[in-house]
Every structure is written in C-alpha cells, then in structure tokens.
Design brief:
heterodimer; A: alpha+beta; Rossmann fold; OB fold (Dihydrolipoamide Acetyltransferase, E2P); 2 domains; six-stranded mixed beta sheet; five-stranded antiparallel beta sheet; 8 helices; 38% strand; B: mainly alpha; MetI-like fold; 0% strand; ABC_transporter-like_CS (chain A); ATP-binding (chain A); Molybdenum import ATP-binding protein ModC (chain A); AAA+_ATPase (chain A); transport (chain A)
Amino acid sequence: MLEVDIQGIRGNSSALFQFRALPGITAIVGPSGAGKTSLLRALAGLDVPTSGRISLNETPLTGAPEMRDIGMVFQEPRLLPHLNIRSNIELGRQSIVSIDQLAHDLGINALLDRMPHGLSGGEKQRVMIARALFGSPKLMLFDEPLSAIDPRLKTDLIALVRQHFADAKIPVLYVTHQMDEAAQLANELIAIDAGQIVAQGPIAETMAKLDGAAFFENGITSVLNGRVAAIDKRFDLAQIAIGEQLVDLPARNMAVGEEVRLRVWARDVLLAKERLVGVSARNQLLGAVETISMTDQAHADILVRVEGSLVRARVMCKTVSDMEMAVNQPIFVVFKSASVE
Amino acid sequence: MSAEIWSIVLLSLKVSAFALIWAVPIAFGLAYLLARKQFWGKQLLSAVIMLPLVMPPVVTGLVLLYVFGPLGPVGLVLAPLGVSFAFNAAGASLAAGLVALPLIVRPIRLSLEAVDPNLDEALAVAGRSRLQRFSMLYLPMALPGVVAGGILGFAKAMGEFGATITFVANIPGETQTFSLAIHSALQKFDGGETVLLLSIVSILISVIAVLGSEYLLNWLQKRMLGEQVVRHA
C-alpha cells in the first residue's frame, strides 16, 4: 500500500496531497497544471517535496530515484537511441523476469533486436512498460503515457495496461487528463485540481461527484458496474445485469458471467417519470433522484442513484420544473448506448 | 624517405598521441562540468580553458616554463619523483596537449549538452546509479564529440610550434616535431628537399586524420540510425 502525505512540490508550492493507494490501478485525473506530474515526480524521487512523508508497504520512500524500486512510464518514451530494444529494456540489470516472456506478453518480441528510431510511439511506450516491469517494481507510475500516441492505437494500449495492471499486486498510479482513460482502467479515482485533491474513492461514485469540463474533456460520463447475464446470439446482444435490473447492449466478445463496466454519457441520458413504451432506446433503469444542481441558467445536472451507482443526466432547467422533479423521487434513466469495458 | 625524416614523423606522432592521451580525459571531465553542472565560477573556468586558443602560443609556452619548468612550482614537486618536462618529448606533449585542449573540450561539451536530461531521469528511476548512467548515457552520447575533438586536437598538436619551442626548445630527436623541423630546415642552405618532404607528409597525415574522423562519425551516426548526431569539425 502506498501512503502519501506531502506538502509543496517544486513548481507547485501550494500542493497538498494526502491519499492511500492499494494494489491495482488508481487513476489520478485533473486538468493541465493541476499538479499530476509534480505528484508522480515526487513519488519517483525526481523532485523533493517541501515537507511530509511517503511510505510504500509501511516503509518510508526516501532517497534517490535509483533506490526506490519504481517503474515509471513517462509522457514521451525515453529510450536510449544507441541501444537496441533488448538492451533498452534490460539496461544492464539482472532480473527474475524473462525478457522474452515479457516481450511476448507485451507484443514486442519482434522488436527486441531493433534500434528505437524506427518504432512507433505506441511500440516505444510498450518498450517503456517492459523496461519498468523488468525491474520488478514495488510501485508503478504512468504519467499520461498515451498523450503522444496516435488515437487509433490508444485503445490497444489501454487494453494492454488493463490486462497487465488491473489485478496487479502493487499499487499502480495512472495519471491522465482524460476521464475516459481513467474510467476504462481504474477501480479507484483521485481527482485533483490546483494542487489539491478534490475527490477520491471508487471510480463510479467519485466520477459522479465530479462535474465541470475540467475533468471531462470528451463529455461528462457516468459509470455503471454490471455482469453479463446472458448472450442472445441471434441479435448479438448481451443482457447485462446491473443489480436487479437488466440492460441490452451489443455483445461483441463478452462472455456470460464477465464483469463489465458501462460508461454512459450525460448528454445521452433521458429521464422519464414512467417506463417508456414504444421508444427505440432499449435501456431503462429505475432509480431515484439523488441531487439536482443547476449548471447554468439553462441547464441542470440530475444525479440518479441506480442500484448503488450514480448516473448523471444533463437536462434543461425548464424540464426540471415541468416534470416537477424532486429529490428521492423515483425516475427512469433511459439511454440508447453505452461504451462497455 | 631518409631515417631523419622518419624519426621526425614518428616523434611528431608520438608527441601528439601522448598529448591526446592526457588531454582527452581531462577535456571530457571539463566538458562534463561545463555542460551538466552549475557552479560558481563556471564562466571563468570556461574562459580559462579557452585561453590557449587565443593567447599567443609563445606566452602559453612561457607559462608552462614558469609552472612546469625545473624551477617552477610543479616542476619542483615532480623532480624528486623523477618526472621532468624539461626539454624532452613529455614536455612537448604537455605543450601540444594544452594548446589543443580548448579544441577538444568544445565538441565534447556540445555533444554532452545535447543529451536529453529526461533520459538520465528515466535511467535513474529504472535503478541505475550515477556511475552507470554516466557510462550508459553520457559516454556513448559524447562519443561523436570525442572523435571530433580528438581529431581536431590531434591536428592542432601535430602543428604546434610556438608553445613547444618556448617550453622545450627545438632539440632533434627529443622535441623537434614537424613544425619545428620544417622551421629548422628552412634555415639551412640545403634544406629545401626536407621542407618539401615534411610538408607533404604532414599534409598526408592531416588528410588521413580528417577522412578517418569522417568515417568514424558516419559509423557512429549509422549506429544510432536516423538519430541526429551532433557534429562539429
């Protein structure tokens, strides 16, 4: 377990970070300049905080970066241009990890004897992940590793990170300014802004508490956790159980019993006082209004509690008054599509 | 070619080679300090290193004489150890290396300054110590600079005249390198042939050195394929 309690980092003198991270992926999300990179640099020992303490598995994490047993993947790949990929992963270190197995798992076994210059950004970041894993780190840090990657390749790399780190036995901190990435990867979320933690906790709950464009560049989303209950092969549909209720989504490669995470865009959500009939949107979940907040003169955000998760819907203020919405009132959340991880 | 010419060629090569042997490591250290460290008096050090390039070589020779000569402070300390720079090839190497030093420091400094400090950080996080980072990152990345600086310094050492003649005089077989031998031959009534031969040989050696450095730099660049290699010369 990682325990952080630090104040003041270079370039961010007012920074104040206090949190714990358990094994598995914790996403750290915040707008540019929020202090995300400063935080990771302090953990890696590249910058020294003014005061406070960091401990990993109940041992203080201090001293030079090379003494800390940390794996780090930076925004841009940092490969030595004069060494081939194998040497760039090994860096002259001994390891219990087999480099060939590692390269195979990360899909870079064909690259081991090549020099870094001809590799794509995505391939280089895979090599950086291999380098980090080769050192059997006790803490893994990702500093916006996809920011310089071709958008088409991001999905692959996100899947790879999830596959290798979601069930990791070490804490993995994944910094990003894209809530989408966080929602696809992490179980825990720490949202930071202006050098302070503004929200932290399980990702679905924490995301629902956040609002504002600062955290959601690609639109505000909510997360619902579910399990695949059945697959309808004829229509390639998966029935996903969210608590006691069911929704239908394209099955793609889902398997019965699989845990899935649905992301629903606030702008795609309709609210209805009664179950709708004769509409094309297939998914209706019964919940209760948790909070109603005006975002501006025209819009309001409604948080609806559905089976323990919170779903955010963005509607017109006039709708709120026309529908006579009130806290705790039962309401149907209707959505057409969701992205599934 | 006569034995006399051969001995001059060999002596010149030997003096220049020994000049490089001591000057390149020191130049590397100085270049590393100037490129990567912040300290008080950095500008001053940088200027002092450049001095032999801009000072009249005769004055450089005089300074050497006063410091390393038999009565100089360093000369007096070294004498009991059996080390002497007075009027011998070691002294000629000292003079040639000192004059070449600024030319060696500069390209190494430039190539070290071009090393991305982010790579150093990445190696540190991966558990590599300061020394390991030095040999893994800075040393290989500075290699093109070392080659360019070494060749420049070698050429400068081969042609050294003023500081050498002032510090260790013009003694055949001991301190009489190319330039000094050409100078002596010019004074002789029948020295024309020697002057011509020595000049041709020195031009040949220079051409070989420059071609060799081009070849080496190209090879280094190919090794990093596509990566921009800082080149000077």
